Amino acid sequence: MEPSPSDFFEALERCARDAPETATQPDTVFKFVLAGPEGGAWLVDLTKGKRSRFVVKLLEAVSDCDQLADAGPQPAATLHLDAADWVAMTTGKMNPMRAFMSGKIKVDGDIKLAVNLPTVVNMVEGYGIGMQGPISIIRTGIENSVASLRRPLPSISPMPPRRTGAVPWLRAGRRLLRNPTAFFAECRAEMGDTFVVDAFGYRLFCVFSAAGVQSLWALPEEAASKALADLALLSHKVPIELFEGRRTFPHDLFAKDDVQAYLGNLKSAVDVELADLGDSGVIEAFAFTKCLAHRMGMASWGGKEAASPKYLPRLATLFDRLDMSESFVHPHKALLTIATRKARERAAMHEIEEIFGEILRGRSADVAPRTEEDLFDRICESWAHVPSPEREIGIARDVIVIHMGSQANLFAAMAWTLIFLLAQPDVMEAVRAGDDAILNPFSHEAIRMTQRSIVLRRVVTPIDFEHGNEIHHLPPGTLVTTMMSVTNTTAAPWLAKFDISNYRGSVFPRSRELAAPELVTTYGHGKHTCPAHRFSTSAITQAISELVRHFDLEPRYKDPNPRPRQLGGVARADRLCKIAYRRR
User: Is 29 exposed, middle or buried (0-12, 13-18, 19+ CB in 10 A)?
Assistant: First the structure.
């Protein structure tokens, strides 16, 4: 007989009382509203310092507001789902991330806190997310694949012009993947600024008008989620369990003081890479900047051990294998990843876990007092009261998510800045003369020209999407979409070519000449501005200025362009970009 939701919450209370420091690691308040037989509502207070009455069952006869006033603080996140789905999830039969993406779980409040759900469930003996054996996993995967073929797409009203296809699930996907930027531009020319694309089991509500793009960027996360939309794409490449139970995210580590530490690590990384070059030779621009990014990132949030010769080469290879940006750079390869059930990626994740387990054991065995803390210590601290091996696995996965999220596009942006710089010798000479500031607008313009990000918001609750004189009703599961590479170069005639004067520092003052400032994007807008913006700009400036001051550089490539198939992120090049160098 399967346990009821009440059984779980009673067990959670007992477990939390027995180990309050472990239970309160999420440091937040949840509310669970479970529908159907044996359902109900429960408030779970896991704030740090709590020692008793962690779980309160809310009675239907009393209003939520009255009960929450008595029960304690307001929930930061409220999760709604069926009681039967809750039982399936807490007994390992349903993947929570897939439940989110399929609409079985709805979240009010801070949707990012939902990633702590495995932490809450797995602390209770006899329950756990991800408890299935290999046979059950294969069976569930087959069932989910069949269900996705049968699942009806969201019904938009009124339905705008639509691009679809005859093959179920695939629909227009094959044409989209040939050249995403050209595909969306052709659809726009044929159907106007608002249209629908059906592809790979998703329904994309595409907007390219000034009013439409502005409304997309203004959507609140609790109504149309960027996090869930990104996860939908990433889940095709990266093992989905990587995102479950994370405690430290990229935006947590980009405070002002932290950026200074990262830049110090970058300087050391640049010094090492430049020393390794010798006096002359040939580099490939993207490979060189990727090595820099790995070395700097590992030194910052992986600890000095991870950046050492003992571990860095192996870690760099594994991160390249796991790289979630590959979901965007080579979207067609995601089909192979799906077919192999991410076996290669999962193996890389486990090897990285083993390396960080070894690093942590080495730190524990070192009796010498440590003279200073690093950012890796901060990640470890959030897992201090979790037993092994969950602690080591959790720390390693936090590092993986931070590193991939922070470095996925930085090296490409750095490489394109160098490529555009080599085409403008006068600017390069200014940098050699000490004008580092010129690289700030230069790098922003390079990113604008090569940005291939697709902007997605997954509708969580039904919304009426207003843009200009039009209103469309969008049900949950709809992906509100625009493509930066389409608008970044077409929103005004003067945007078609590279022009450093478009930017003043990191500011785009010519946005006043556009129908909407959101039509041109490098690091995002408003609350969705990239948290690593300042760090990335500083990193590019420091790395490129050091390189051109130490070496004469000669391009050995001709007219590189962004990779046509790329769907998301800063583009990789469509060819090798080799550069001959000679020490000055």
Answer: buried
Provide the 8-state DSSP code for 245. Answer: T
Full strand arrangement of the beta sheet holding 202-207: 162-163, 194-199, 202-207, 479-483, 454-459, 224-225
* Share of the chain residues as helix, strand and coil, in percent rounded to the nearest 5: 50, 15, 35
- 462 and 438 in one domain? no
C-alpha–C-alpha distance, residues 306 and 479, integer Å? 38
- For residues 483 and 520, the answer to whether their CB atoms sit within 8 Å is no
Residue 85 domain-assigned (yes or no): yes
Give the pLDDT score at 399. 95
Confidence bin at 64 (pLDDT 50/70/90): very low
- pLDDT average, residue stretch 404-408: 81
Residue 65, pLDDT score: 43
Helices (H) and strands (E) in the chain, counts: 25, 16
**One-character DSSP codes across 49-97:** T--S--EEEEPTTS-HHHHHHHH-SPPSEEEEEEHHHHHHHHTTSS-HH
Are residues 460 and 477 located together in one domain of the fold?
yes
Asked whether residue 69 carries a pLDDT value surpassing 50, the answer given is no
Range of the domain at 378: 246-446+529-583
3-state DSSP assignment of residue 336: helix
98 and 174 housed in the same domain: no
* 3-class secondary structure, 42: strand
Measured CA to CA in angstroms, residue 260 lies from 15, 413, 576 at distances of 41, 20, 33
User: Is 292 domain-assigned?
Assistant: yes
pLDDT tens per residue, range 156-189: 999 999 999 998 888 999 899 899 999 999 999 9
Distances (CA, A) of 197 to 183, 190, 303, 472: 10, 13, 44, 15
Query: Which range has the worst mean pLDDT, 41-55, 240-254, 450-464, 476-490?
Result: 240-254
Same-domain status, 253 and 174: no
For residues 292 and 348, membership in a common domain is answered with: yes
Picking from 88, 116, 134, the residue at the C-terminal end of a domain is 134
Instruction: Answer yes or no: pTM beyond 0.85.
Output: no
Q: How confident is the model at residue 305 (pLDDT cuts 50, 70, 90)?
A: very high
What is the rounded CA–CA span in Å between residue 150 and residue 18? 46
User: Residue 186 maps to which CATH number?
Assistant: 3.30.43.20
Question: Does residue 271 sit in helix, strand or coil?
Answer: helix
Using DSSP's 3-state secondary structure scheme, residue 122 falls into: helix
52/506 Cα distance (integer angstroms) = 50
432 and 473 part of one domain: no
Tokens at 116, concatenated = 């702590």
Q: What total of structural domains would you count in the chain?
A: 3
Locate tokens 């807008």: which residue?
525
Residues 39 and 68 in one domain: yes
Residues 228 and 253 placed together within one structural domain of the fold:
no
